[in-house]
């Protein structure tokens, strides 16, 4: 994440929520509801890519993972429990402080860094994740290129982001912020990327998209994978060839 990709206003917005990040009924409640579904998708892609047994508790043992825009560690901690050596990076120092404190309380060794991804020591990772982040950066193309540069040759990159549709504007921005489901100012609909736009950025960075699925509301479960991509979608990429 070079200097052209971090938006200071976005970093400040999410940094202000740091103390509340791990409260499932607080300002990050929506992320807590999304996280199990995102984890299910990530696990599915891990198992398919590395031919892992779905019953294996630590499918990432011996592998490294990088979570970019990690917040206070909502995804980084489950990746660590899956056996990965996890590095998390976030633009907001407040988030990293909360992430370190929570990981310590859980007995998890996660390497957290505040600031630019490009400032990390040179390294590549078997798994690179970035959930609900690309729509908040100042330069999405540069951001995706930096993510791709951190991906190991046989690695896997998994992203999620809202889609730029009329429905997402109505539900994710206007309705969700009005009723307090997400904090006001969280989303700028004009920054949302359609799947074809994000795919173009990924291909421009030398990767290929190998899977994509919708993430949509479910009356029974809160959210579900598959079906409509009108609100949100996840995709998986790897190096060409």
From TrEMBL:
UniProt-listed Enzyme Commission number(s): 2.1.1.222, 2.1.1.64
Identification of the protein by name: Ubiquinone biosynthesis O-methyltransferase
Known pathway: Cofactor biosynthesis; ubiquinone biosynthesis
UniProt-annotated binding residues for S-adenosyl-L-methionine: 38, 69, 90, 131
HAMAP family documented for this protein: UbiG
Primary role: O-methyltransferase that catalyzes the 2 O-methylation steps in the ubiquinone biosynthetic pathway.
UniProt xrefs under PANTHER family: METHYLTRANSFERASE, UBIQUINONE BIOSYNTHESIS O-METHYLTRANSFERASE, MITOCHONDRIAL
InterPro entries noted in UniProt: SAM-dependent_MTases_sf, UbiG_MeTrfase
Family classification: Belongs to the methyltransferase superfamily. UbiG/COQ3 family.
Keyword annotations from UniProtKB, A to Z: Methyltransferase, S-adenosyl-L-methionine, Transferase, Ubiquinone biosynthesis
Source species: Sphingopyxis granuli
NCBIfam families: UbiG
